[in-house]
Amino acid sequence: MSLDEREKKPAPLAAREPQPAPLAADARQAPQTADEPQAAPAPDADPSAEREETVKCLVWDLDRTLWDGILLEDERVRLRPGIRETLTELDRRGILHSIASRNDHETAMARLREFDLAHFFLYPQIGWQAKPLSVARILEDLRLRPGALAFIDDDPFERDQMLHAHPALRVFDACEAARLVELPAFRPRFVTADSRKRREMYQSDIERRIAEEEFRGPQEDFLARLDMRFSIARARQGDLERAEELTVRTHQLNSTGCTYSYEELDRLRVSPAHRLWIAELEDRYGSYGKIGLALLELGPQAWTIKLLLMSCRVMSRGVGSVFVQMLLRSARKAGVKLRAEFVPTKANRQMYVTLRFAGFREIDGQTGVLLLEHDCAEDLAHPPHVRVEMEGE
Fold it and tell me: Which residues span the domain enclosing 173?
């Protein structure tokens, strides 16, 4: 099933349907240039079509939502029934939490620590700015699209304002908090090892960002200090739940936007006409988990990349190009050219740039699927700050 078909599935009835409005996040996207592929425009598209099938992050209001009452009027506010259980279960499923609340930051965080809940929330936006601005900041920090977020608040005005600013979001009334775990949007098909560690991996990434901001010197020197280890291996059966999850969740660094089921991936994994590679990254701060996937179709004269994707969490580490280089090296050893299919979407231009910088050139684009090719004439060296291991060539 294609990405477009999956995204056109109706949203859960509990979510408020948005009214058409300009998508605020679009203003932050870099303009496309004439020589780069562009996704077909859809001026009348339903914003709900951009929603992802499973919510990646739930953004909470605090007063009368996470807890009863208003904190600045009563510092003894109590958690609302079912909140702790909802936070814990969604976290176990790999769904992140954040906060967009008009409140005093220090007072609110102190109360969250007293409840032993502060560790659940990534990039909490607690202050006096408008909540849509807080959500825009969360989207930027987590590198997510609006369709990946849900927002919960007791105030209907706040929910409507959020939908006006971010039409692709799902919004929920605070009274629904305890039953969110039952809704399809919060029930991923698989809960993988990476899912269960997702918050911890994001928290490690926060440490990396702080260290990078404080580092004085060239970025290359900082990357060298990370001691990155990038491993690529043929996918095993135990990798397939995560592999399916990657095809469903990854949109920005994704060459075609196609999704594959566990069963499809299992057939391709053992097919003599295909190779399925999965990539993992770790550094001195810990593991990023399994963050990349490549599906190759093997031909006598050329191999074709049917799918290439990388998690947006590693976009700034340059390992997307490392993955491409290792595939080129494998094709070169086999004595064939390497081709790549590319389907332009609203989100995946960075993958096109990665392929072009690696030396791929367009050879066909008549069917709506661009076909790029690399002659594999030269063996490319990977960046010196990354140690690379490739297993099962």
Answer: 3-186
